[in-house]
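We recall that each integer encodes one residue's backbone shape. We quote one record:
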Amino acid sequence: MTSRNAAQDLPIAIVGGGFSGTLLAINLLRYGVKVALIERSSAQLAKGVAFGTRRPEHLLNVRAANMSAFPDDAGHFLRWMEFSDKDEANRFVPRLTYGVYLREALVEALAKAGPNAQIINGEALSVDFGVDAARVRLADGDVLECRSVVLALGNFPPVPHPVLQGLPEGLYYPDPWDAPAVTGLDGLDHVLVVGSGLTAADVVLSLESSGFKGKVTVLSRRGLRPHSHAESGPVVTPVQDPDKRGSQLVREVRRRAAELGWRAAVDGLRPHTQNIWRRHSVTAQASFLRHLRPYWDIHRHRLAPAVAQRLEDLEASGRLRYLAGKLGGAEERGGRAAVSYRPRGESGTQVLEVDRIYNCAGPDCDLSRVDLPLVQGLLEQGRITGDAHALGVDVDHLGRVRGTDGAVQDNLLAVGPITKGEAWEIVAVPDIRRQVWGLARFLADEHWVGGEGL
């Protein structure tokens, strides 16, 4: 058994070396805390899926001026890019460039931390929790003793579509980030993208950049697609944390949108969205998710103007179309897929024949379906449970994970998109950098040391 004093000298184990895990590690190392960062894919270390892309057409969805990794140093990314004037600060740079930025920030932190930092290229299979320490068992048989564990697992793979699961490999790609997804395009005439969010936009651009000359149909329940950022950065008038709730709050946002423009109305809520979410009851949150979420998403999570323009050009040329409808079935016919769907607002069905299908329906947040031994083991132990809306892991406002008994655990925490049920807005860089900065202070037992930029 490890004594309590000895446990304090053990590292904090961070499982997941994407954006959230990397930034938490950097912040902890800045406070002199020992860290062991565990990442099973060396290619995704300090990048994750989003910033690990090698495709230059995949741009950031946030302006360079707001992409600093550190809330206490708003100009950090701009200096790294050697950007100075307003036009450069407004640019939406390639995500692969941002991946290089993150990796360099980690390397610099590692160099300064010396023996306090440990990078483990491996998969965490399970965790045994003792009174004063935890032990992480790795796939290679090694065991890491640590004082606490932080789950930084990022987004899980897309929601599976039961009607598409029976289609053969090569005809259906359940995960659009699989490397072969945009290869072998010669001879393909028509592809279907299921889901119309930011990932769908990435897939369309990747197909185009890879030489695809055919047509793309994007199918989603409502046929919505993300709106575009303005060409130049908005001037946002700060607003007080709204005291209205539910439909009254919606009416107030619509009023401000009519007065100032929808971008300013939405951006004005940015500093308050997490608090607004937390003030609403579980029933009210569920109502938002059921009725308003798709409309919030397309206004809140926007495309870079250049990306939006390219999609508009493809749509105008007739090579890209958006449909609203519900999938009904799919079967292979002569090497193609015959997909039936019911158009929104209609009772009958229509059939599309396509050469390939991509699932871009968004991450699957049902923990019971997550294909990770660590997650399944923690579920079996009762150490983790899903939140009330099945958006991820149930945590408190500090990131401490709740077990099935409802009690929070000081030695098991979570950060990033898997904490969406508690924070709602926790998928973009500005939100995650604030979350990990606060969690690092909590774990390091540090006091508040400055303001936060949004």
